[in-house]
Amino acid sequence: MPSEFELIARYFTRGTSHTKLGVGDDGALIAPTPGQELVISTDLLVEGTHFLADTDPEALGWKTLAVNVSDLAAMGAQPRWALLAAVLPAPTPDWIGTFARGFFECANRYNIDLIGGDTTRGPRAFCVTILGEAPAGEALRRDGAQAGDSIWVSGWPGRAALGLAHLQGRTVLVEPQLGECLAALHRPQPRVALGLALRGVATAAIDVSDGLLADLGHILEQSARAARLQIPGLPAAGIERDCLLAGGDDYELLFTAPASRDSDIAALAGELRLPLTRIGHITAGPPGELVVCDDDGTVITPARRGYDHFMSPLEAGTVS
Ligand code: ADP
Ligand code: MG
Predict the structure, then answer these.
(1) 12, CA 20 to 30 Å: which among 38, 87, 113, 151?
(2) Which residues line ligand 1 (CB under 6 A)?
(3) Average of pLDDT values for 197-201?
(4) Which bound ligand lies closest to the C-alpha atom of 4?
(5) What digits encode the pLDDT tens for the residues 293-315?
(6) Ligand 1 pocket: which of 5, 7, 8 to mutate (most atoms <8 Å of CB)?
(7) 7 C-alpha to center of ligand 2: Å?
(8) Closest among 197, 165, 317 to 264, alpha carbons compared
(9) Which whole number is the average pLDDT over 8-18?
(10) Using an 8 Å Cβ cutoff, are 50 and 186 in contact?
(11) What is this structure's pTM?
């Protein structure tokens, strides 16, 4: 059985490309780019709450880093460095090696240096701290939405929750939808390029981790604004609608921008080859109010808005 130090050396030590001193000392040394602000975020993934014991370790390794990358994407930041705190049961090198492969696949994809962490024995859990950079004053935030702004979402919100519903036997998907939904669930693609392109364009942004309505609610609260949603092609009532409106784990970006930028954003979708859908607008209504309409403009009352850890882990059908 490898020791803690052998584990770190074998599985979590790789070359770095933009770090003065990485894994192996008491602390890492990094030199932020002059003129940039550091954007820092952390996320915890706990077995039984965020992933199941039989989850494929490679997909889990990818996702452990990807959900953190997504937070930086939502800030309009360029991800640069990460630290990984790992709690592992009796070390099983195969499992850890496969997890590390997925983790470094994601790190390589987004050019992130792993610069440190901590490793300890216990019930399996992972905590990543990620650092990125954005030009001073240009990071995207949740608190800038203005009345009249358009509300946009990237990609295909709802897919991850639908994939989970399939795995849990709450719905039955067939190809190609099945493959698309499972890929969204297991291999989320953080929208870093979109976040960078939205600097100076978006007035507020968030990544969809808890559910579209719940996360839009966060923008509305922090911006003290209201919204009216009318999502093109919203499915009829049922699990597809529920997953789209309230499913978590998508890691798409939800953002607001002045209506005068609508055509720029439509063009950006073409450049990035990523659907960007205008799903409503910010209104001058009471702060926090969210009116949701059907495709034909009829006001609807969604069953739920999203996922809350302190309500019902896993059974709610989405994880964040
Ligand atoms: P210390 O006891 O000084 O905190 P550790 O023995 O915990 O140091 O870790 C030794 C080195 O390995 C440190 O540089 C630490 O950042 C790094 N490290 C520990 N665990 C991990 C991990 N899971 N991933 C990456 N680096 C790690
Ligand atoms: Mg330590």
Answers:
(1) 38
(2) 8, 12, 23-26, 84, 86, 114, 116-119
(3) 98
(4) 1
(5) 998 899 998 877 776 555 543 33
(6) 8
(7) 13
(8) 197
(9) 91
(10) no
(11) 0.92
